[in-house]
Amino acid sequence: MPEGKIVKALSGFYYVADNGRIIQCRGRGVFRKRKVSPLVGDFVEYQAENDLEGYILAIEERKNELVRPPIANVDQAILVFSAVRPDFSTILLDRFLVLIESKQIEPLICITKMDLLSKEEENTVKRYADQYRSFGYTVVLTSSERLVTLEELRSYLHGKTSVFAGQSGVGKSSLLNALKPELELKTDDISNSLGRGKHTTRHVELINVEEGLVADTPGFSSLELTEIEAEDLSQYFPEMAELSQSCKFRGCLHINEPKCAVKDAVEKEEVPSYRYEHYLQFMDEIKERKPRY
């Protein structure tokens, strides 16, 4: 049975890429009965008489899936944050990072509009960038006029399935257009009154960029931490995950427990206090969540 990867879903059709060919397929009724929908990014088995009349017969197990954009088997998320307009937000970045880490997706942080900063503001953002690098994250800085590190960004896309995510109005569509001009994604200026971009979401499609695949729909599911358990949260803060090994109690939540290596490191300023504050805030959210049955 031939196998391929769904690269587009539109109006009940799934477009399966297989060795340079694109086969238009429908899903079998069996998926509906099992309440499983094929997703863009799925590896599938299919049968087809020709390139326009195929059927998806089986979906291989997914390593992860996102709700918006609806896509499976993502290797990395390029988290696009602007240095200014809207201002760089560490709490929003940490929320994205926690969600991405919980899906076993590799994050890459891209900070745009660096050229719009004063020298002092630039130094502040660069200090944050260095801190995130020290936690083990890759951080790329770009300017709005000339995407100075576009070549560096291209190298990270090679051979991977990537999604772009981040706050509205930070330049996700501009970056995608710069990487692949024929995309012609709509980019609207930020509405100054709202401080938000006005990007219109379309169907999801994986496009070839730099011998990798990129989802052409910037976006991400709701930013609520609905699927994360309290005892797992610190695993999604790499610097805390490492320190957790040295806590006196197994399952330490790093809040009130004695001889906690994380709290100790925060006191010694080895872990930035803003990261720990965000951790506590997310922990409160998780604990206040209604139990799921």
Automatic annotation (TrEMBL):
Belongs to the TRAFAC class YlqF/YawG GTPase family. RsgA subfamily. Its main location: cytoplasm. This is Small ribosomal subunit biogenesis GTPase RsgA. The keyword Zinc applies. One of its GO terms (molecular function) is metal ion binding. Binds 1 zinc ion per subunit. It is found in: Cytoplasm. Zn(2+) binds at residues 247, 252, 254, 260. One of several proteins that assist in the late maturation steps of the functional core of the 30S ribosomal subunit. Helps release RbfA from mature subunits. May play a role in the assembly of ribosomal proteins into the subunit. Circularly permuted GTPase that catalyzes slow GTP hydrolysis, GTPase activity is stimulated by the 30S ribosomal subunit. Monomer. Associates with 30S ribosomal subunit, binds 16S rRNA. Residues 63-223 form the CP-type G domain. Gene3D superfamilies: Nucleic acid-binding proteins, P-loop containing nucleotide triphosphate hydrolases, Probable gtpase engc, domain 3. Pfam families: RsgA_GTPase (PF03193), RsgA_N (PF16745). Its EC number is 3.6.1.-. NCBIfam families: ribosome small subunit-dependent GTPase A (TIGR00157). It comes from Bacillus aerolatus. Keywords: Cytoplasm, GTP-binding, Hydrolase, Metal-binding, Nucleotide-binding, Ribosome biogenesis, RNA-binding, rRNA-binding, Zinc.
